[in-house]
Amino acid sequence: MTEFFTTYGALIVSMVLGALLGLSLYLPLMAGQLSLASPGFYALGGYIAAILSTTVFSTTGVFPVPLLLLEMLIAGIVSGVLGVVVGVPALRLRGIYLAIATIAFVEVLRVLALNLDITGGAVGIFGVPQPFSEPIEYLWIALPLLIVSMVLIYRLERIKVGRAFVAIREDELAAGAMGINPTYYKVLAFTLGCILAGVVGAISAHVLNTWNSRQGTFDSSINYLTFVLIGGSRTFLGSVVGGMVFTALPEVLRAMADTSAIPPWLAQLLRDGRLIIFGLLIVIGTIFFPQGLVTPDLFKNRRKRRRPVTSDQ
């Protein structure tokens, strides 16, 4: 068992972080907003952690865990403030126009990171100190964060705020007629997703030991969109399952490509055609599973089957 966690520890941590990134995209989708800004805030959180740990919090030896928690807090606050600034004008758009606007925001952040000295330019920031000696030890931070996020979203869906999100998603005009302020709740959902993405970025910078502009790109937006659309966009469990599965999928494809049982052209496709495969999965998934693999009806039907049958006699 120890050898298993040593070998696959980095992949397991990446799967948990992928689930968190799926949740960061699921939060604006709760309010019917197709936002693809999560990679931008993920990159922002990583840069904040990398800059703070290599300059402001520069230490010798093992990086203290309390400083990592402080970086996560700072990354979340900065991402939340910027999320409000970006969300107020951007969320006046709907559908594909909002998606295009958020992709443009991600590209703006990427270009800034490529041209600023503080971010290391195209080279990025190397030597981000690590608080743990083994990748699997990051689970002590990432896994509790995932559990807490899932519990909070589960409770959020069952209180007034969550019901307002759902009402806006189903019919924004009807929700407004019922006294719900669509702009307020859409910005709130967007900001919560930005905060979560920024916190995950702060953890990832230490896990990867380096950070550069490739962490927040259009390719990443497609990956995260796959997490939610194929996993399930109507329940947070779908985002968690999708994030874990599609984070592990590239490693599975790479392992398949290294076998000699498949033709060379297929092996090359498996190595370099991840986006093509993800795009095909999105198309196929939206056709045959329009609500994703995990849906609320799945659990409702299970509860109905478990309900005991009573007799009227």
Automatic annotation (TrEMBL):
GO cellular component: plasma membrane
Swiss-Prot/TrEMBL keywords: Cell membrane, Membrane, Transmembrane, Transmembrane helix
Listed transmembrane segments: 6-29, 41-63, 69-88, 95-116, 136-154, 187-208, 275-299
InterPro entries (UniProt xref): ABC_transp_permease (IPR001851), LivM-like (IPR043428)
Molecular function via GO: branched-chain amino acid transmembrane transporter activity
Mode of membrane association: Multi-pass membrane protein
Annotated localization: Cell membrane
Protein name: Branched-chain amino acid ABC transporter permease
Species in which this protein is naturally found: Scytonema hofmannii PCC 7110
